[in-house]
Specification:
This protein is an alpha+beta fold and about 190 residues long. The protein contains six helices and eight strands, in the order E-H-E-E-H-E-H-E-H-E-E-H-E-H.
């Protein structure tokens, strides 16, 4: 079976759209997923599934959350290889003058149209920098992500795709979990 990483947008934030991780794991098991692991409370799931279409997996999770918990949660699902590729291609890692604690990855539901990406160039981002990758935008926010204009909502409005952001540490931890998941279940 293939290992997948699903990243949920906007759960357990400021007391809204609350989902306990045990309940999320139970829901995933009921969907037929196996070797289910979650990471922190922000909605990160590593699992294995027979289904091979990441869009269908996202739709299954979204539908189940709506049915069980009663609210809509946009979900982006990646294969381990897709996440590994996104991590490896972060252009900011090569720049040793940048502090990795200010790196973030905004995962995208799809690659945005080039004309939409051009709209980002018009924004006053102050000290923030970004680079567009395959279904991801790499962020460098030296004044803190909480002070950045490059929020999920901003990127969704400009790019017209679903976006959800994780810090660099979380992205790497999810990849480590996915790699360990494969080793355990060969």
């Amino acid at each position: 079976m293939t290992t997948y990483i699903s990243i949920l947008r906007g759960i357990n934030v400021s007391g809204h759209r609350m989902i306990k991780m045990d309940a999320l794991k139970k829901m995933c098991a009921e969907l037929g997923f196996s070797t289910i692991q979650t990471y922190i409370q922000s909605g990160n799931i590593v699992f294995q599934a027979k289904e091979t279409d990441t869009q269908k997996l996202s739709e299954l999770i979204e539908s189940a959350i709506d049915k069980i918990f009663g609210f809509d949660v946009p979900t982006i699902t990646l294969t381990k290889d897709e996440l590994e590729n996104i991590i490896q291609l972060n252009p900011f890692v090569k720049d040793k003058t940048k502090d990795a604690s200010f790196f973030h990855i905004t995962f995208l539901s799809d690659n945005p149209a080039k004309e939409k990406v051009e709209l980002l160039k018009q924004a006053d981002l102050k000290n923030d920098e970004y680079a567009v990758g395959d279904k991801a935008i790499y962020l460098y926010c030296p004044d803190s992500y909480s002070n950045s204009k490059l929020t999920n909502s901003f990127l969704e409005n400009k790019l017209k795709v679903i976006a959800t952001t994780r810090n660099w540490k979380t992205g790497n931890e999810l990849l480590n979990m996915a790699c360990d998941n494969n080793i355990k279940n060969i």
